[in-house]
Amino acid sequence: MLCYSPGYVGEGILHEPDKWTAPSEPTPEISWYRSIFFPSSHINYIAKDTPLGSIAVSVKPMEDNYYLILRTSDNVETGTIPTKDVSKKRGLLKTFLKKSKKKPEQYAIIKYKPELGHTALYECNYQAVKDQLLQIESPDVFEGKFRIGLLYSQPHQNNENEMFCNTEVSQDFEEFTDLLGTRIELQGWNKYPGGLDVVGGKTGKYSLFTEFEGNEIMWHVPTMMPFFPDDPQQLERKKHVGNDRAVVIFRDPGGDPIPPNIVHSKAVHLCIVIEPVHNEEGDFYRVCVAYKNTVPFFEPALPEEAEFKKGPTFINFLLHKLINGIQATSHAEEFKQLMSFKYKHSLTCLCSDYGVKQEKKEQPEDVT
């Protein structure tokens, strides 16, 4: 179904499987704030004008250490400071200042970053701040909205131009789209449009839309878009699919394997090929997955047989695989800049809102 192409990781039924890079288990990422801080008591400090710029610091006292997360516009640091070191520093300062109003957590920050010793750190334990810090730790650049290419391929078609030129589809493809989503009319559509024209009809009258676990998916289906007889490349169709990070190719059985980069695009990092199978046991879908080796592994893993019985269980698996895969592409070098922008923007907004002294009457403090 998929032939080997350098620079790709493959799962499922692959041509010349020995050549492919097998998916490797990812290095677990510890989400410090989500797993260690958020579930229990801790203190957050926000400051705008510091030697490090705008910062957000979370401090959590443990038995022998203070755990810290320091967020600046450039990076995120995690560290620990022994409790005894903080107690010693606090005692010395009290001797000189006679009366210190600083909390031990503030001394832990100063011990970790001495340059913050003269910085006004504003304690912010509002639930809204905690929720924003969760988002900063794991920024969602998609916000639950996804656009995915869905190409139909006849068995003999081995290049993108042939696929983009299709105007008719098979009964198997029709049944697959019925399982996958809902046929919607674009004119006046008021949910996620995925870049399609919902006013002038320039991208066709209908499209395919899916709502799944709070996510909205607009499918870019070339056979549902206008066809231009004088354009062998069908660029008006391709410009939508070519800007998607994931492409699903539904391929009628009987053809030769195709490469995962059959859609020539810098944006497409994930390709899933689906082929219908009919036998005495029923109707099935055979699946293979390929993604660029700059994309980290993502669940759910494709089972060894890579063949699924036709029905909602398969669609559930496919949508999870696609959504997780698209999110994983954000870690590829080509998209890291967008992740960095999202992080910096969120931190700047947080510090602008809370990096000044807050009046207690403005919001009730969350003491949990």
TrEMBL record:
GO terms for cellular component: cytoplasm. The keyword Ribosomal protein does not apply. Coiled coil: none annotated. SUPFAM superfamilies: Rap/Ran-GAP. The keyword Membrane does not apply. GO terms for molecular function: GTPase activator activity. Residues 134-350 form the Rap-GAP domain. Keywords: GTPase activation. Gene3D superfamilies: Rap/Ran-GAP. One of its GO terms (biological process) is regulation of small GTPase mediated signal transduction. This is Rap-GAP domain-containing protein. It comes from Vannella robusta. PANTHER family: RAP GTPASE-ACTIVATING PROTEIN, RAPA GUANOSINE TRIPHOSPHATASE-ACTIVATING PROTEIN B. Transmembrane segments: none annotated. InterPro entries: Rap/Ran-GAP_sf, Rap/Ran_GAP_dom, Rap1_Ran_GAP.
